[in-house]
Amino acid sequence: MSNYEFWFVVGSQFLYGPEVLATVDTRAKEMAEELSKVLPYPVVDKVTAKTHKEVCDVVREANYQEQCAGIITWCHTFSPSKMWLNGLKDLNKPWCHFATQYNEAIPNEEIDMDFMNLNQAAHGDREHGFAGARLRKPRKVIAGFWKDEKAQKKIGDWMKAAVGVSVSKSMKVMRFGDNMREVAVTEGDKIEAQTQLGWQVNTWATGDLVKAMNEVTDAEIEALYAEYCSLYDIATDNIDAIKYQAREEIAMKKMMDAEGCKAFSNTFQDLYGMEQLPGLASQHLMSLGYGYGGEGDWKVSAMTAIMKAMGEGGNGASAFMEDYTYNLVDGQEYSLGAHMLEVCPSLASSKPRIETHHLGIGMNEKDPARLVFEGKEGKGIVVSLIDMGGRLRLICQDIEAVKPILPMPNLPVARVMWRAMPDLLTGVECWILAGGAHHTVLSYDVSAEQMRDWARMMEIEFVHITKDTTPEKLEDELFLKDIAWKLR
Q: E strand or H helix at 480, and its extent?
């Protein structure tokens, strides 16, 4: 993730003469250097664009440079928007239009016509904005002084969403077997996903995994077992079950790395030749940044990997999640999220425990080992990507995770309890109206605005359920969006 960078393209024109252009260029370099010190990814000053050719050249280069995750444009002076049209039309990287100016305040004594000629960002950015609006080009517009922390945070958040786009466009998902039989929402159009999102989603037989497991050495297993012991509390005497999970993890990781896959799915209905469903194995792989989807859900698998990459440090607190059951007591309405075995420990409020228990579903010959923990408190979101037939819809709901109100001593799974916005019952009605899946990605690190940015960059539909959402308003919104997206 540290290899990504963002290109700073500043707009001007020859009208102002060489002295002004030299000053613009110097300031652009200074701003890029200073912003690089505080933003999550470097800002590289590329060009003070003055002509149609310069714009087209830098866009063409950005499109084909993998390390360039997006461009940030700013018009220091008046930059005629016609010279930007052809370049921006061909741009296929995320675009942020930063409406700022070099000086924070109007200098009362110094302001004269020379100052005005040099500092025309208020003029130039509006001309530049017309180009984006006329092209109907997806873009993020951020206004603010470039040294202000609020403006810098907005740019940093956008950068992380843009990195999510880069990760998406190179996403490869390894499916071990097919999805769970007769389940609708885990299905989807893989051609549409590859065309729209860049994902390559393919299947490997469970027998291929078993073959790879048989090739794992004892030394490899012992090394990973030692890592487990350093990271987690061992709360079982069944060490063989833990080492079996290590064997599964090593084999899956080798297969994914060999194919360049960053996400995987499996199903408890297809464990041919395996003793246990991967639990601890899947959880630890997620902690390393891999995405996972249960029951063959390749969409949530890829979204988990993407949102983890968008989070803090390029591997944030985002995880595969499932709505398990509700607490419907008046005044204590909460959702309990969990899964049979597979929730990422990045959500844990304290050091997870490795336990082994019987799993009364699927084709397990032996009791699977898994991490057990409670999720941490805090504000977050849950996200679901669904296939509407002809288009993709990203649904995002604001939540507030709480310390579980019950100890649940006989529930041997990792779990998170949260209050859905605007409240549990209204939130459930809205989620179901929108078609949200039972599988989600729960994130403490990624915001709803970042997911809106990501959806805009990927040019897919976005639905946001907030504290102010009502079923009636949402129903009207979905009706209008259905019409709009069918006309695209």
A: helix 471-487
The rounded distance, in Å, linking the Cα atoms of 395 and 177 is 27
Taking 60 as the threshold, does the pLDDT of residue 1 lie above it?
no
What does the DSSP assignment read for 374-414? BBPPEEEEEEEEEE-SSSEEEEEEEEEEE--SS--TT--S-
Reported as a pLDDT band with limits 50, 70 and 90, residue 2 is low
Asked if 199 contacts 458 with a C-beta cutoff of 8 angstroms, the reply is no
H-run or E-run covering 10: strand 5-11
Average pLDDT of the chain, as a whole number: 95
Order of strands across the sheet with 353-356? 233-234, 353-356, 369-372
* Residue 112: Cβ within 10 Å count: 9
User: DSSP letters along 359-370, please?
Assistant: --SSS-SSPPEE
Q: What residues have CB less than 8 Å from 409, skipping those under 6 apart? A: none
CA distances from 368 to 171, 207, 216 (A): 29, 19, 19
Closest CA to 74 of 15, 140, 16, 171: 140
pLDDT (tens digit, 9 = 90+) per residue, 42-78?
A: 999 999 999 999 999 999 999 999 999 999 999 998 8
Q: What does the alpha-carbon distance between residue 23 and residue 117 come to, in Å, rounded to a whole number?
A: 12
Element (H, E) at 436: none
CA distance 450 to 453: 5
Both tokens assigned to 455: 């959806």
Q: Which of 219, 407, 414, 419 is nearest to 328 (CA)?
A: 419
* Alpha helices by DSSP H, 173-325: 190-197, 206-214, 218-231, 239-259, 280-287, 298-310
